[in-house]
Every structure is written in structure tokens, then in C-alpha cells.
Design a protein that fits this description.
It contains ten helices and seven strands. The chain has 314 residues and is α/β, with parallel strands linked by helices. It folds into two domains: 5-175, no CATH class; 179-287, no CATH class. β6 and β7 form a beta hairpin. The longest helix has 22 residues, at 68-89. Bound molecules: zinc ion. Zinc ion (ZN) binds next to β1, α3 and α4. Zinc ion (ZN) binds at residues 8-10, 158, 162, 180, 183.
């Protein structure tokens, strides 16, 4: 069915292991049975099936074990995040509601999460899956480990960034470095600091990748290079954000896929090719602020406290 599949995993807090996911069908409910729900917004549809509390909004179908209220809270947060992510990366791009909706499965246990996404994702907090049928999106899905509110918040913004961007690049895959670089900018500042540390270690040990190598990667690099790949990718995206206006980065990636990176850099950022970008970027990380420069994640809404949630096993 799918022409190609994106399997994008959240980088783990200790450096980002990424492994292909083997999906476990049937982990989440497939159909809904409406139930009465107090205080539901007009656009929300609440239901319950086999112990899963399901809430549908314009663009999402959220399933959790905790309660209908928690599913609704996550669904509203998803809608707000989707708006913020689009506003940051795709300003001015016409929006239309997602069909199909994006399934968001908030697992209550690690075992349930791993059954859904595969044991290779043991070190991740979330996982996104987008499947295409031709140029149409056939499946949008985010699985969340849901071990802690902060993990839910950070992983959800990261994974939804992948899902939002997949729509924009439905005719050709978004390069991994750009996809992960943008998604990491939705991570919490604590996670971003770990990526910054990985980048600095890579620079000290001279194990960073050349820019020409990063942009030509068809997939993730070898596991031992994953930490520096994430750190470098988000750093390059962050640097380019400071070189232009909002929305120009996605325009640049699109141009690079059509005309090559050297020409796209000249056209969009007036930077004289990859070698010049590499020189400028290196100068920025060695003498600039000791953090990624971006407009995120402060731009992203913060989810309401989940501390009152009732958790049950899957
Ligand atoms: Zn990711």
C-alpha cells in the first residue's frame, strides 16, 4: 500500500538510538462506540472500547487507558501543538484537516509501548509512523511511552513535528538530518542540552560528519554516530534559522531537493554553497552561544499537568 514509509523515532535522552519498527497490529482499538462525556467540546467525540478511552478532534484520535478526560486533554494539546508546529515551519502554507486523523496512542506501560513499536525502540519515549499511498497519506500515528508527563510533552512535540512535515514532503522524503533537526527543536531544553553535549564531544574528538556527508545520508547513520548526527543536525537547522525568515528553512530544503544544496543555499540564504555553510556553522558553534539558537520550544504550548491521571496497566 505504501510507496514509502517514514519511521521516525524520538532520540533517546542518552543519544538517540534508532531502529526500524516492527508494528504490532491490534494494539489500539480500531472502531469507536460513542459514550456520554461531560464537558466535551462540540468538535470532540468521546467513546470507549476495550478499556481504551478515545477522543476524536478535527485532526486527531487519541487513545489512553487513564480516562476520557486525559484523552481529551492530550487531544486538545495535540491540536495546539499542530498549530504551533505549522506556524513555525510552514507559515502561509494552506492548512486542511487531516484525513485520516492522526492516531495518538498514549501507552500506560512500557510493555504496551514496546508491543506496539517493537523492542528496538526501547530507549525512545515516542515513535511516529506515516504511511503513504501514492502521494496521499494513508496512516498517521504517534505512539507515546507515557511514563512521565515531561516525557509525554517532549516526545509528543518531537513526533508531531515529523508527522506535520511529512505532509509537506509527501512527494519525496524529507532528508533525515532536516527532519530530525527540526523535530529536536521541539524537544525540551533538557533534551536539547544532551544533544548539545553530544555535538561538543563530537567536535572535540573530531568525529563530526562533514556537511556534504550529512545531507547525502539516505537514512540514519551507524549507531555509534547517532549521537553526533542528532547534535549536528539540530545545530545546522538552528544556525540556518538565524540566517533567514520563518518558513525559509523548509523552502530551502525543498529547493535543495530540486536544485542541489549549493544552489539552494545561494538562492535562499545567500550563502555560497555547502563549504561556506560549514565554515560559518563551525564558527557559530565554537564561538557563539552554548546552546541551539531557535524560536522553540518556547513557542510550543505546554500540556496541562497529568499528575492527577489514573493509570492502569495495558
Ligand atoms: Zn525524531
Amino acid at each position: 500500500m505504501s510507496a514509502w514509509v517514514i519511521l521516525a523515532l524520538a532520540a533517546s535522552a542518552i543519544g538517540g538510538e534508532v531502529t526500524a519498527i516492527a508494528r504490532a497490529p491490534g494494539d489500539a482499538p480500531a472502531a469507536t462506540a460513542p459514550v456520554a462525556a461531560a464537558a466535551a467540546l462540540p468538535a470532540e467525540r468521546h467513546s470507549e472500547q476495550a478499556g481504551w478511552w478515545i477522543v476524536e478532534t478535527a485532526n486527531f484520535r487519541v487513545c489512553s487507558r487513564a480516562s476520557s478526560a486525559e484523552s481529551a486533554r492530550i487531544a486538545r494539546h495535540c491540536e495546539a501543538l499542530r498549530h504551533s508546529i505549522r506556524d513555525l515551519w510552514l507559515p502561509g502554507v494552506v492548512d486542511s484537516s487531516w484525513t485520516p486523523r492522526c492516531d495518538v496512542i498514549a501507552h500506560s506501560t512500557e510493555a504496551g509501548y514496546l508491543r506496539a513499536v517493537g523492542r528496538g525502540a526501547a530507549h525512545t519515549a515516542g515513535s511516529a509512523l506515516v504511511e503513504f499511498s501514492g502521494t496521499a497519506v494513508a496512516v498517521r500515528r504517534v505512539d507515546l511511552k507515557h511514563a512521565a508527563p515531561e516525557a509525554l510533552e517532549s516526545a509528543l512535540a518531537h513526533e508531531l513535528t515529523h508527522v506535520v512535515l511529512a505532509d509537506r514532503f509527501r512527494d519525496r522524503p524529507l532528508p533525515r538530518w532536516a527532519d530530525e533537526g527540526m523535530a529536536v527543536l521541539a524537544d525540551s531544553l533538557a533534551k536539547q542540552r544532551l544533544h548539545w553535549r553530544d555535538l561538543q564531544q563530537g567536535l572535540r574528538s573530531r568525529s563530526t560528519l562533514r556537511l556534504a556527508e550529512i545531507v547525502s545520508l539516505a537514512d540514519y547513520p551507524a549507531p555509534q554516530r547517532m549521537g553526533v548526527f542528532y547534535g549536528q543536525s539540530v545545530s545546522i537547522v538552528s544556525y540556518l534559522l538565524t540566517c533567514g525568515q520563518r518558513g525559509q528553512f523548509v523552502e530551502f530544503v525543498d529547493a535543495a531537493l530540486s536544485r542541489g544544496y549549493d544552489q539552494a543555499l545561494r538562492d535562499v540564504y545567500q550563502i555560497d554553497g555547502l563549504s561556506e555553510l560549514e565554515r560559518r556553522w563551525l564558527a557559530s558553534v565554537t564561538s557563539g552561544p552554548a546552546r541551539f539558537v531557535s524560536r522553540t520550544p518556547a513557542d510550543f504550548p505546554v500540556i496541562e499537568s497529568l499528575r492527577t491521571s489514573t493509570r492502569t496497566g495495558t
